[in-house]
Specification:
single chain; about 250 residues; alpha+beta; 434 Repressor (Amino-terminal Domain); Beta-Lactamase; 2 domains; five-stranded antiparallel beta sheet; two-stranded antiparallel ribbon; 12 helices
Length: about 250
């Protein structure tokens, strides 16, 4: 519920909305009456703040005006909800995990943990590709994986250029990896696709997996990634074996 000074009501007068948004009252009246049909994205941002619109209403406002929303209403979080963690565990035969825009791994299911077990830390996909000694062995088509990883981070930079975590990650990767530095300067942009991923796992050998990526509706910036193998394929058999080996290892350490 928006407020105006000490007055707090369910609705605001036009003049009050105009003041809160920092626009001329006559201009706002023309907007409301449909006589002004081309407001700028900045004006819509200001109105969204004044009216305390949620992300859906804010995006709808921009769609009606034909403008592009800024990123200031896209509230990102690295907290994975219990419901999403439960969903991860609902894929016992498929590696599934949640990442953010900077490719930090926020949560995994058991099989994703097993798939990433050769790495020192399964914490960030970009760090794992470029800085972890296991990267070039586990990602058997390392060059294409590296290119896709950098292009994804470039996309993140366009969506959230002031993200301090992104700046920190790029600085670390640039400082310690000439391969990353070279690819970063190409400025290629690419989101996650459904291309096959090729792994060479030390416990079960070669794996060819496809994957689906889903945006997490209530946590902008988070994505759920689910790998899968072709049914009855050698990769499916290897994935099943990997799950069994990991379960056996867990029981042995209990």
């Amino acid at each position: 519920m928006a407020s105006y000074g000490v007055r707090r009501v369910a609705g605001l007068r036009r003049e009050e909305v105009a003041v809160l948004a920092g626009v001329n009252a006559d201009y706002y009246t023309r907007l409301e009456q449909g006589r002004e049909r081309h407001p700028s994205a900045q004006v819509l941002d200001a109105l969204g703040r004044a009216l305390r619109l949620d992300s859906d209403a804010y995006a709808h406002l921009h769609r009606l005006a034909g403008t592009t929303p800024s990123n200031q209403f896209t509230h990102t979080t690295d907290r994975v909800t219990p419901a999403l963690r439960q969903l991860l565990d609902g894929y016992p035969g498929a590696p599934a995990f949640v990442i953010n825009r900077t490719l930090d791994i926020l949560a995994t299911n058991t099989l994703a943990e097993a798939l990433h077990s050769p790495f020192e830390r399964a914490d960030n996909l970009a760090r794992m590709v470029f800085l972890d000694p296991a990267g070039r062995q586990v990602y058997s088509r390392w060059n294409s994986t590296a290119q896709a990883t950098v292009a994804h981070l470039r996309q993140a930079a366009g969506l959230d250029p002031d993200n301090p975590r992104l700046r920190e990650l790029v600085h670390t990767l640039t400082e310690h990896s000439t391969d990353f530095t070279h690819l970063w300067t190409t400025h290629a942009v690419r989101g996650k696709t459904q291309d096959a991923k090729h792994f060479l796992h030390p416990d079960v050998g070669a794996l060819t997996l496809t994957y689906q990526t889903f945006d997490v509706r209530d946590a902008p910036g988070q994505q759920l990634v689910v790998y899968q193998a072709e049914p009855a394929s050698p990769s499916a058999q290897a994935l099943s074996l990997l799950g069994s080996l990991h379960a056996t290892s867990d029981r042995a350490t209990m």
